[in-house]
Amino acid sequence: MKKLLLALVVALVLVAGQVYGAVGSISISGDDLIWSKPLNRSVFRVITVIFTASSTDGSVPDLTLNADTAGLKNGSPLGWYGYAVIIDCNHAGTEPTENSELYILNAGGGDVLGGQGVDQIDNSAERFVYFHNGSVPFKQPMVGTWTVRVTQQAAAVNSATGTLYVILVSE
């Protein structure tokens, strides 16, 4: 009886996944401190974010980045400054639509990349984007929640994957 019930549950999950499709995901897979030996302190922090687009519509959910974000092993990112993002989407697997967008929004909804993440998710090359104030590269202080948002161009690629390396500096 238990085996039959287990078989029914597994079948239901498989059918539901095919009917409704798998939703996209985004999460923290790494949080590394880079130390300066002469200064004897961390000067860079690299937060690795991985995403997979939905298998049905190619959408990627937002990631809320704050003191409570799962996967951060070095404490709260509050008080650090956004410096740059390395966008790596040209690795094995399904690649996102060419010229897709990356936004990192502050608590007020402003893009701390200053629009520099537009058309930067590329399926054939890595990209390096600085945090920006809209006219020049500018370190952005993290004083509240940030939202990491990935959007694909009109021709969404289902199950597309990518990696973002968010580089923070201590001052």
Please, could you describe this protein's structure?
The strands form 2 sheets. Strands 1, 2, 4, 6, 7 and 9 form a 6-stranded antiparallel beta sheet that branches. The N terminus is likely disordered. The chain has one domain: Sandwich (Jelly Rolls). It contains 1 helix and 9 strands; from the N terminus they run H-E-E-E-E-E-E-E-E-E. The chain is 11% helix and 36% strand. The radius of gyration is 18 Å and the shape is globular. It is mainly beta and 171 residues long.
Layout of helices and strands, plus pairs?
Blueprint: H1 2-20, E1 25-36, E2 41-52, E3 63-65, E4 81-88, E5 101-105, E6 127-130, E7 140-141, E8 146-151, E9 161-169
Antiparallel strand pairs: 1-2, 2-9, 3-8, 4-6, 4-7, 4-9, 5-8
The helix/strand series, from N terminus to C terminus, equals: HEEEEEEEEE
Q: How many angstroms separate the termini?
A: 62 Å
Q: Please give the count of helices.
A: 1
Q: Can you give the mean pLDDT?
A: 85
CATH topology: Jelly Rolls
Task: Classify the beta-strand content into a percent band.
Answer: 35-45%
> How many separate structural domains?
1
Spans of at least 5 consecutive residues with low confidence: 1-20
| Structural class based on helices, strands and sheet pairing | mainly beta
Number of strands: 9
Helix fraction by DSSP (H/I, runs of at least 4)? 10-25%
CATH architecture: Sandwich
Report the radius of gyration as a whole number of Å.
18 Å
